[in-house]
Amino acid sequence: MFLNALEAIAKNIADVFNRYLIPELVDLNFDVVKYPKLKFDKLGAVDYTTLSNALATLSNGGIITPDEDLE
């Protein structure tokens, strides 16, 4: 039930951003017909393959240093 409540809050925030904030910011900076949308993934779902690939890329590029806390 907790995740359902968090998803409802996230959906509410995304709806407000998509309805008011994004169109206003885009109109101030660009001339477009279709606006981008703020979306969120299902809460609690983690794509471990994507996460591990991103961490490996950051580590190999010297951007982060692997240590015990990161592991």
Helix and strand run: HH
Number of strands: 0
Question: Which structural class best describes the helix and strand composition?
Answer: mainly alpha
Low-confidence stretches: none
Which features would summarize this protein structure in a list?
single chain, 71 residues, mainly alpha, 58% helix, flat
Describe the structure in your own words.
The chain is mostly helical and 71 residues long. The protein has one domain. It has two helices and no strands. The model has no long low-confidence stretch (mean pLDDT 89).
Provide a compact summary of the structure.
With 71 residues, the protein is mostly helical. It has two helices and no strands.
Secondary structure layout plus pairing:
Elements: H1 2-29, H2 48-60
